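Q: What structure does this chain adopt?
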Amino acid sequence: MKLLRLFGAGFSMSLRRSVAFRINLFFDVLLAFTGLGTAIAAVLIVFTRADTLAGWSKAQFLVLIGTYQLITGLRSAFIDPNLSWFPETGIRNGKLDGYLLQPASSLFLSSLSLSSPLQLIQCVLGIGVLGWGMADHLPTAGGVASWLVLVAAGVVVTWALSVLLACLAFWAPKLQLDVFYHSAWQLGRYPTDVFARPLRVILTYVFPMALIASVPSAALLRGPQFGVLAAGVAAAGGAAGLAVLAWRAGLRRYTGATS
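A:
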């Protein structure tokens, strides 16, 4: 409950800062519409030449894009504002020193204390696209429940991957893997069925981009599968546990920015 109160307080402060510059809202909406419009346009162009792609119809692809946009919005709103600059601000500039002195989890403060509320616009747009894709195919209650569980698992995996990449700064402060991570993230907007088997295995078991959008969308469209649900929850728990262990190992190595 303490962490939830801290999270709420941090979000409230970030929201007040964001609305103080209203012109930012206009540009954030414009960028969100532009990015989403580009993705949808690409899908519509493909489906002018084909009825299905790797077994996915146009409506199913829209569900996938909506789910991907929703999780991307959550990542942009709550994870990136903290961890995308962690090697620079946290390690080299000493911001982590202040977090270690606070009476709260340093991992929470470093990864979730700040937010960018205007990025939640992406979530709203994602839900709109999701509804568009589901207009002619209403999901079952089990499908919706499975989708919610797997989306939550995808968000946890997203957070854990970001923490693991940030933890590399404890050993290599100048190492920048953001370009690689953002490039790999873009693969999440496509179903894993479109990739060759070696890449599909990597995106499912090694760098689980499949859990971001493809697996939740399939559960919503085709109904729940207990094995998939169990695997998704296990992947989220394992990724979170690994992130915590990596953070603790990094803190044991950390000696302070000014030491």
